[in-house]
Design a protein that fits this description.
The protein is α+β, with helices and mostly antiparallel strands. Helices cover 59% and strands 13% of the residues. This is Transcriptional activator HxlR.
């Protein structure tokens, strides 16, 4: 779980790392980037081996950090959807750049194996 910090105590890079730290956060954000809106069970299926508790904790942290929003629809059974907030949408170029870098890195590893 990310530590609670106050923005004036740290540099911007440390703040960014704090928001994105956690084994599952980047994968959660990448799935939301690709699908725009996901329900809890859809997200859990996409992630694979994540426990319900861990996913709940990570989603709550991202929600507290104002990166994602949770929308609850008043119906039976309850319907809950997760999506980016306005500030969370500003992470999209960062996620895309990280994916592009990962693709290039993977290609360089395959080149060196031959």
């Amino acid at each position: 779980m990310a530590k609670s910090i106050t923005p004036h105590d740290i540099c911007p890079m440390a703040l960014g790392i704090n928001v994105l730290s956690g084994k599952w956060k980047l994968q959660i954000l990448w799935n939301l980037y690709n699908k725009n809106t996901l329900r809890f069970n859809e997200l859990q299926r996409e992630l694979g081996h994540i426990t319900t508790k861990t996913l709940t904790d990570q989603l709550r942290e991202l929600e507290e950090q104002k990166i994602i929003q949770r929308i609850i629809y008043p119906e039976v059974p309850p319907k809950v959807e997760y999506s980016f907030t306005e500030i969370g949408q500003t992470l999209e170029p960062v996620l895309k750049s990280l994916c592009d870098w990962g693709t290039q890195y993977l290609q360089s590893l395959n080149i060196h194996k031959n």
